[in-house]
Amino acid sequence: MTPMIAPSLLAADFAHLAGEMEMLNRSEADWIHLDVMDGVFVPNISFGFPILKYVAALTAKPLDVHLMIVQPEKFIAEVKALGAHTMNVHYEACPHLHRVVQQIREAGMQPAVTINPATPVSMLTDIIRDVYMVLVMTVNPGFGGQSFIEHSLDKVRQLRRLIEQTGSKALIEVDGGVNHETGALLMQAGADVLVAGNAIFHAPDPEAAIHALKTL
Ligand code: DX5
Ligand code: ZN
Predict the structure, then answer these.
(1) Would you call 38 a catalytic residue per the annotation?
(2) Ligand nearest to the Cα of 197, by number
(3) How many Å apart are CA 86 and CA 157, to the nearest integer?
């Protein structure tokens, strides 16, 4: 199966944002992955809505917004205003996850739930039928350019089994340390969507790097 590719803009050159967006628009990228960090849920701060407003205006590709923030439900309207396709919230940031998932759907977006490396797949048993997608973090969230955590392959396999057993239609997305080699392993394990930052934007030819991932 061909993977869907979601380049993570976190690794882009923000001094040349328009050029980076033109490259993505020309490329075979399926979605654009946008990492919002608050310095509380994760030990880093990235970019917020004033910047994402300009990003959204530069592309017609679906936006996959990954919120690494506490209380993500406070920002449903802001994410919706970007025209986002998917709103990704962390399992660890949402004590009332079921409610947040419904609110995202009611706002007209696709709800996705993200799990950190130390969160077991089994925690998703009671929400798996309600989500459009699960994002399995394959590094600890907060920074680009980290190395892939090998155990993630087992988690993707477990998640694929859970989806099959429950009749869920959820997609499996993976994020962190994804390159040609780990991407191939993740696809074999059952992933549908590959997020990649450094492997794309720091490649000599980012458009070719997207093509290479697309044709794994
Ligand atoms: C990490 C972010 C990722 C990051 C991935 O917290 O969620 O999307 O940009 O970067 P790479 O692909 O460089 O590991
Ligand atoms: Zn991300």
Answers:
(1) no
(2) 1
(3) 23
Domains in the chain, start-ordered, CATH in brackets?
4-214 (3.20.20.70)
Instruction: Report the alpha-carbon distance of residue 183 to residue 194 in Å, rounded.
Output: 7
- Closest-CA residue, ligand 1 atom 10, reads 144
pTM score, whole prediction: 0.98
Paired strand residues for 89: 67, 113
Tell me the pLDDT tens digit for each residue of 90-136: 999 999 999 999 999 999 999 999 999 999 999 999 999 999 999 99
Distances (CA, A) of 174 to 64, 162, 182: 12, 16, 10
Please provide the distance, in angstroms rounded to a whole number, between the alpha carbons at the two ends of the chain.
9
DSSP string covering 128-153: GGG-SEEEEESS-TT-SSPPP-TTHH
> Does the Cβ of 144 fall within 6 Å of ligand 1?
yes
Which ligand 1 atom sits nearest the alpha carbon of residue 177? 14
Catalytic residue at 205?
no
Q: Catalytic: which of 30, 64, 175, 192?
A: 175
